[in-house]
Amino acid sequence: MDFRHLLTLLQHSKTATHLLQIYSYILKTSRNHDELIISKFILASSSISIDIARQFFHNSPVTPPLFAWNTMIKEYSKSPTPSESIKLYSHLQRTTDLQPDKFTYPFVLKSCGRCLLFAAGGSVHSEILKVGFDLDRFINNTLVRMYAAFGSIGFASQVFDEMTERDVVSWSSMIAAYLTCKYPLDALSVFLDMKQVNEKPNSVTLVSLLSVCSHLVNIKMGESIHSYILTNGIKLDVSLATALIEMYSTCGYIEKALLIFNSTSDKNLQSWTIMISGLAENGHGEQAISLFNEMEDLGFIPDAVLFSGILSACSHLGLVEMGQKYFDQMVNLYNIEPTMEHYGCMVDMFGRAGMIEEAYHVLKSMPMEPNAIVLRSFISAYKNYGSMITFDDNLVKLLLEIEPDLGSNYVLSANVSSVSGYWSEVDDVRDAMKGKGLKKVSGRSWLQDNRS
Fold first, then answer.
1. How far apart are the first and last CA of the chain?
2. Residue 350 belongs to what H/E stretch?
3. Nearest partner of 107 among 75, 151, 133, 61, judged by Cα
4. How far apart are CA 49 and CA 247, in angstroms?
5. Of 45, 99, 342, 398, which has fewest CB within 10 angstroms of its CB?
6. 450/452 Cα distance (integer angstroms)
């Protein structure tokens, strides 16, 4: 088999079995000394089987060329084990005379961000400055995203501000960085600066901007972005369609969200999750459950977020048996470990149905300490329905420990004490409120009064 034929076989390899046959041939013919063969085999195999690529790489009788190192680092950065990318980078520096290049660093930085390894990321950044790659746009774009993953928006902003050359990816990365760090107004400000320099947004930018609208619950801005998408003929890929669905759902325009969802042929799990959760949160629990069942019939595997939405729908509809069924299905069929939110949905569901003993059982069986939301849910339910069981005073004490400065917690505590007949404790709670200078905040509405 000549060299060109071997390269053709590698390019057309689709399965691990085929790769192993070529691997065996390369060993028999001692072509594993050839740097080009090493690079081509790593390139072909890494995307099919990272294990075969790793075996070939580490068993190489010669030091693999930098291209092979970069390929392995890149594939690990996208894999479920991105830490291997960082280990390989460190191994490259310790055991070879090869120097990382501008293609090495972005994927190492990406892995540091995915693993939340701030010290390692900072060390790689220092190395980049030393070797003079600090002006590389691709590297800087990745640095912005890495620091955003760490929650270090100051460092991300500094890298962005010091960039001498920016492209649409740079602007999109900075907008996404502010969003990741919960600064939606700053993300919007960056977009306005982007417009000032006449940089046109791409679909990634628009996804981030729609997320800004969702965070700010700004329907006018969201509709303006939707209009821009339609006017400019931008393809509505699954990410962009999902962002539109989320924006309209969050802003309460559930019919528009459904219209986009139903007209999107290429849906992923996130699309279904956001649509089902949006229906549940907007009071359309029956539609949410129906859509969940349809999604399962199509073969999608629901995740923890999706079960939160469906359990919430069951709670608001009073569908206790169905809610219990979904919770059991989540744990036993899909092997999803319940989170605080899942337990909270179950406590709320039983509480709304007046099933205080069942709600208390869920509360006490939680493997973690309940948060203030779960505690308030149970205590409120007890206040309404709980005269048939003895109240657990420790729950009120825990709530006041978690949120000692919230006046409504003391009012709730006083109310439940009066229901239980502990009038002396009511006086104690009121004295505690006075001592802290707390008052119960009056109820308010976010509805705008348009009357003249």
1. 87
2. helix 340-352
3. 75
4. 38
5. 99
6. 6
Q: For the chain, what percentages of helix, strand and coil (3-state, to nearest 5) are there?
A: 70, 0, 30
Give which of 406, 416, 440, 413 is closest to 429, Cα–Cα: 413
pLDDT tens per residue across span 160-217 = 999 999 999 999 999 999 999 999 999 999 999 999 999 999 999 999 999 999 999 9
DSSP letter assigned to residue 452: -
Rounded to an integer, what distance in angstroms lies between the CA atom of residue 433 and that of residue 431?
5
- Cβ neighbours of residue 173 under 8 Å, at least 6 residues apart? 141, 144, 145, 148, 160
Amino acid at 39: S
Q: 320-329 pLDDT, tens per residue?
A: 999 999 999 9
DSSP secondary structure string, 237-269? -HHHHHHHHHHHHHTT-HHHHHHHHHH-SS--H
Q: How far is residue 151's CA from residue 181's CA, in Å, rounded to a whole number?
A: 6
Whole-number Cα distances in Å, 96 to 43, 50, 93: 20, 22, 6
Residue type present at position 170? S
Give CA–CA dist 234/442, Å, rounded. Answer: 47
DSSP 8-class letter at 175: H
